[in-house]
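Lecture notes, unit on protein representations.

Consider one protein chain, 293 amino acids long.
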Amino acid sequence: MGRPVHNFSTMLHLNSLSKHYGSKVLFENAEAHIGETNAQGEKARIALIGPNGAGKSTLIKLILGQENYDEGEITRSPHIKIGHLAQELPKFDDRSILEEVMRLDGRREEILAQKQDLEEKMQHAKFHTDEIMAAYSRVLEEMDALDEYRLPSRAQQILEGVGFSQKDFDRNLSELSGGWLMRVALARVLLLQPDLLILDEPTNHLDLESLLWLEEFLKNYPGAILLVSHDRSFVNRLVNEVWEIDQKKINLYTGNLDAYVLQKEERLKVLEAQFEGQQQKVAEIKAFVARFG
């Protein structure tokens, strides 16, 4: 699985978050947080659920900083790395499948270019300074964090896991259909191995063999996962927490989807009992007013 992610107690915190589009309010004083582990000491595996239009995609964009919220705040642990697989097909440049996956989030290319530049400078005595050596040391640390020396073998393993064969690795991306391009995007974000992995419908273009491989990969994943998927069985076997977007709030439930359903039913019973009690109180007040008003 590569190197462990950073050890954060709380990676992400949503505090009194509000978001609206014109007169439509999606969130109002919403609260939630993602820790490295949950209360049971398990790695965070969170299902984000809610009806279409409830705000699942918007919430992800807010977390990623792609949209602004109106009130509240989102705090992230310093240096946290977030990876995201969107439903939309990303734009790819003209390169091979393996090259694209090994680009990660684009930072690797910058690091390798810096390394080459510094090595060229170090070949000349006039550039061989403490400043250059310090910069070179930082580059090597970043390469180590990327697990650079194991990156090719890990990339190939992940590509095979999502359904590619070795003879596909050098194929150009222009040869692939949309479904296979989405597998490339999935492989790329898995190889990045971020501290928080956000997956929006990751199983849409997978066959059964690839889906089972992905499930096993995610079960052993060292970071936290926030998952949106209509594949109930897949989600049920994977998650240990549920975020339900409902009534402009984020309701939190422990356990998988089956546990969520039971807890939701209990919550509704409590709300119904409270409502009936309130109605009884209203009736008593009305009777009192009618009698003594």
